[in-house]
Amino acid sequence: MTRANVNDEYDFLIELIKEEFIVNGEKKDFDFKKISNTIYHIIHNHRSYRVDILNHDLQNKTFQLKVNERNYNVVLQDKHDLLLEKMGILNVSPETTSKLTAPMPGLIVDIKVREGQEVQIGDPLVVLKAMKMENVLKSTHHGVIKKIMVEVNQKIDKDALILQF
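RE: above sequence
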């Protein structure tokens, strides 16, 4: 499942099940044709749409699209993003966060920072392997790493202190 937020106004839950699109719980019939790497032609409900990808940031899953002369900003969340949101991991207040704790039990597989290093919002801090997935835990604010409490290949529990800013 993927959530698409369009222009910070509309949310769509999109699933692809056996080559059928389900949008907000309803089956939708689309006919897609890729024209180039950035241009698509779509027919839906007997209407034709030209979709131009004007800009994209795959790491942050953001896209600027032009659909029949109208511009749209789209932010995607995949199933992993939705799980992190459901667990409350994305709702951390940057102003009050001075530490990073484990959102779930797991294994530290990589440490991307060092003590004394300055970090910005979104910088990768550590990689935590949990539930057979590698989760990159990112900084929620600007700051300096004061102390790293874990080591690579260390198993940690939920809420274990990983590092302090």
